[in-house]
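QA checklist item 7 of 12: single-chain prediction sanity check.
[x] sequence parsed
[x] length recorded as 214
[x] structure emitted
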Amino acid sequence: MKGLLYKDIVVLKKQISTLLIFVVVYGGFCMAGVFDFSIIGVLVSVFGLTIPMSSVALDDAAHWDRYAAATPAGRKGIVAGKYLFTLLVILVSGLAGTAIMLGMSATGLIDNPPQELVVVILSCAAVTLLLDAVILPFLLKYGAEKVRIVSMITFVLIFGSIVLLGGLANNGVNMPQLPGWLAAALPAVFALVSVGGFALSFAVSLGIYDRKEF
């Protein structure tokens, strides 16, 4: 499995480096006041979705899965490698985004407290983890090309809903008020749902890949 993970890192090294440069560039735009700092969090989500999909797409094009299934890692190793690679991408992009946003806060370029900036990144990472939990089983079953539209719809629905609710709240629309205890527990509950959903997704993908015909 370590070899499969290393393969994904090497094959997508150029793309990962390019996307990290995009984080730095957009960080510069945020410093110049062109974009709001929250765009960095959105980029973390974009990377966490597009890079794993690119990994599956390249494997499909090279028929790599047929060969990898015959290796000692087997089908379970292929699935575990993809899920571990996805976690690694979210972690690296999240750390890069956090470093940029905290740097902007330390230099006084944005007024938001560091805790709020970290929460933004963690929230985007949790949403991305949940999105990947939905998409990865479809990716491993049907391939990247067939699932691309599913991932786009899922991304638009979730983030569109978040933007819509935020816009309504900013425009003074009265939103249903959650009880204080529920509002305080909501971040932890959502994090648990994301992690639990990702673990459940891994189990589902193992079953799907075990029955897949090449």
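[x] summary fact logged: Helices lie at 2-11, 13-31, 39-62, 64-69, 74-106, 114-142, 144-170, 180-210.
[ ] second reviewer sign-off
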